[in-house]
Amino acid sequence: MIQILNKILSRTTKVIPIPKYCLPSISKALIVAPHMDDDIVGCGGTIHRIGQAGAEVSVLYLTNGCRGNSNMQYDEQLGNVRRLEAEKAFHYITGERFKNLFYMDICDECVSKHLEETDDLKKILMKDEYDAIFVPYVLDIHPDHRAANYLLTNVLEKIDKKITIYFYEVWVPLIPNLIVDITASFSEKCNAMKMHESQMATKNYIKMISCLNGYRANFADRDEMLYAEAFYKCSIDEYIQIISEVRQGLVY
Ligand SMILES: [Zn+2]
């Protein structure tokens, strides 16, 4: 873990790495969301902005959400409710310009048991020419977020594609090389977050994203930037190398 942090830091000549502040140019994006709401928490503002700029956005939800309650008890009905909430929020945040919503229906906290089930994700990636994949930061505290990267790597190693990977933040801040100003889209991000009513009942996610996105904007020293999302952007080759090094440390 220390090695990978050193590697990221050593890619700059500055004492403190300075991220780029811009909206990336994206035509077709796939958001890999281990849980139904990670897409909005981690990159809802950016999804809204690239959608407005004409990008086609799809999402893959890895887990079925059946344990997304405060006591982590299995509740099939909750899974159905979360799916409807996620669809409503994703349709809204993309401005109805979404392409596909995909599901793998894995039980919550079990993604690491399905790392060899690569067929569905491989089909998704082979069917469309994505130029961007968004995935949670590999050093996140949630095991499903780390395992999502191991699953994605198992697929990317088998296909020959040129896609830019964007790590996004959920529970752990990352060392960013890209900051997207989402001030103009923050109200839409909050509206989409509120559509996840079952999750809003368990935690004040509006407060969480306000703090995280406000903290990110504050680094820019630009008065007009109030909210921002942070990413680590890299090529597939670099991504596979990063994940390989993390896996050698057996961070499951
Ligand atoms: Zn999650």
UniProtKB/TrEMBL annotation:
Tell me the domain of life. Bacteria
**How is this protein named in the record?**
Diacetylchitobiose deacetylase
